[in-house]
Amino acid sequence: MEILLICVCGMSTSMLAEKMKQAAEERSYQINIEANVADNATDIVPDYDVVLLAPQVSHKEEEIEKIVAQYEDVELGVIDSLAYGQLDGEAVLKQALNLVD
Which InterPro entries does the UniProt record give (predicted)? Predict the structure, then answer.
């Protein structure tokens, strides 16, 4: 599974991606998790199964939804703001997994 976290500049989202990777490794899940900026979404969304928007870019959800809608196997969600603020990698990983179930 491939998970993409979309944000504004990537610093805190990169930290969250690392926490998610740790949670995935603890469960022996084979998951690739990357963080990238919203401006790159058009080019990179097709490479992922799940796209999660950081709360600070949730205003771009409609724009990103149009990109995601072009690919039937890509799911989109907005990261829970509490889990994001706490860098709760396990909670955000569960959110991503729930989107594909």
Answer: PTS_EIIB-like_sf, PTS_EIIB_2/3, PTS_EIIB_3, PTS_sugar-specific_EIIB
Q: Residue 56: in which H helix or E strand, if any?
A: none
For the question of residue 9 being annotated catalytic, the response is: no
Mean pLDDT by 10 residues, the chain (101 residues): 91 92 96 93 94 94 94 94 96 96 83
Domain boundaries, the chain: 2-100
pTM for the complete prediction?
Answer: 0.93
Q: How many residues does the chain have?
A: 101
What is the separation of C-alpha 77 from the centre of its chain, rounded to a whole number of angstroms? 8
Q: Which of 3, 7, 45, 52 is catalytic?
A: 7
Helices and strands in the chain, H and E counts: 5, 4
d(CA 65, CA 17): 21
Return the pLDDT at 94: 97
